[in-house]
Amino acid sequence: MRIKTSCFRFQEYVIEVEVLLGNARKWTVQRRYTQFSELSKHLEKFGVELGLPPKKLIGNKKEQFLIQRKEALQKFLDVICSHSLFYSSSVVVEFLGVLPETSTALHEWILLSVRGKSQWILSEKRANCGWRAGKTFYELRCGRSLLTLSALRYGPDRFGTVDAINEALDFIRSLEYPYVSECVASWADEKGILAVRPAFGHGTLRDHIYKSNWRDEFFVKYCVERSVCSLEAIDVRFICRQVLEALSLFCALSIPFLDVHSGNISISDCGCEMIDVEQVLAGQPSFHRPYMLKASWVNTIEDMMVFAFGEFLFELLTGFFSFPLNSINEGLALAPTIFQPILKSIFAPETRSLPTLIELISSDLFVDIPVAKMNRREIRMPASVKKLLDRLCENICKRLRSDRAQQNRIQREEKIRQLLLSEGEKLRRKQIVKCQQMELSKSTNLEEGSAAVR
Asked: Which residues does the UniProt record annotate as the domain PX (predicted)?
């Protein structure tokens, strides 16, 4: 980061942004202190201290002050970029200029997409209702019925033409599975995927756990300071068994539904229902991907489903969004004893291989939990849809392996750099140089002595 004085005499901070994984790229953005302050106010609703330096009115143009503020703002950005929920949010993405378009462009896309659908009236926009940049929610009116529209931009794993994706959407919508939420309509265009479903009056399972209003901003709804509603062990078992039943179907059909978390599950009279299944076709990374990159034993689509299920189970038991992979024992200790073996098999597998979905279903925790089955004995999938789903799964697995290898290389290089810059390494090199100089001096003295004797 460097400081630049604009023509209006105020200070701007030039931020150098770099994406290291995938298509690596660099760019710069210029931001004023007031923009840093606005960003901090939004993110601090989550209840995390970010360390933004305070505003100063007098002496704020002195060189020493500017240097200190620049260092403090750099630390502020480092904190944000180390938290996946923060750097994935729309406010941070816009602040750093990660995406070429703004929220205004996203809004215009929605308006154009529903313009020809006269049966729906676009109502209120729910800005920042979710955690992901590039996804937005609206309330729709259809007569007296209240519906929810969700729209998601395409991501790096996307595969297939718009027509092929629409065919796959029709197939997913036709499944009519007990544990998949009803989708009134879904369609794809050149920019992304849109889906309309009945509004959930009481929100998602996560809203139930946090006792929050689904219409509020994400960082307000799930603030770390909120009290969490604890679930009984039997309720957790029933919910997880139904989720496993849905995941086993998705795995059999090669539908890579990896966003398994309580924010994607609603509670109905019949049990749990998975939300936003159709939006896997957008090819956006899942909520759990940053943690999957660290877990070298996660490689296949089924592995990813099992890992995401483990994160979901841990969230139901503790209220935390993700399992602490850097402190396995502490994470396990937070969960009730009966759930610890299954969590350990997922987050610290002894054989470096994960249990399958069938093995999880057959475990003592879930084997005796009754579930509803599909009415149909077989599902006919068009060959074109199967090809699209298979290629989508290949893209997800290939990019995970590539990014993991790239991340490991970056971490190795960083460790070497830190080692070379450490005080111990500097002292060791000084001692080596000193020894070499002493040996050189001794050899020089010997040569001079032998020359004098001759």
From this structure: 1-103
Q: Which helix (H) or strand (E) holds 313?
A: helix 301-318
pTM of the model: 0.89
Mode of pairing for the β-strands spanning 192-198 and 265-268: unpaired
* Residue 28: CB atoms within 10 Å: 12
Residues 353 and 374 sit within 8 Å (Cβ to Cβ): no
Length of the chain, please? 454
User: For 169-225, how does the pLDDT look when each residue is reduced to its tens digit (9 = 90+)?
Assistant: 999 999 888 899 989 999 999 999 999 999 887 889 999 999 999 989 999 999 999
Beta strands in 80-215 (DSSP E): 121-126, 135-142, 145-153, 185-188, 192-198
Q: How far apart are CA 85 and CA 92, in angstroms?
A: 10
Q: Are 336 and 236 in contact (CB under 8 A)?
A: no
Domains in the chain: ranges and CATH: 2-96 (3.30.1520.10), 103-405 (1.10.510.10)
Interatomic CA distance for residues 347 and 331, integer angstroms: 10
Rg of the chain, C-alpha, whole Å:
27
**Are the C-beta atoms of 221 and 213 separated by less than 8 Å?**
yes
For 248-304, the three-class secondary structure string (H helix, E strand, C coil) is HHHHHCCCCCCCCCHHHEEEECCEEEECCHHHHHHCCCCCCHHHHHHCCCCCCHHHH
DSSP class of 185: E
For the stretch 301-343, pLDDT in tens is 999 999 999 999 999 999 999 999 999 999 999 999 999 999 9
d(CA 426, CA 444): 27
Nearest to 274 by CA among 260, 287, 286: 260
* 376 closest CA partner among 172, 177, 169, 182: 177
The alpha carbon of 120 is separated from its chain's Cα centroid by a whole number of angstroms, namely 31
Residue for token pair 């840093």: 36
Owner of token pair 């991340």: 407
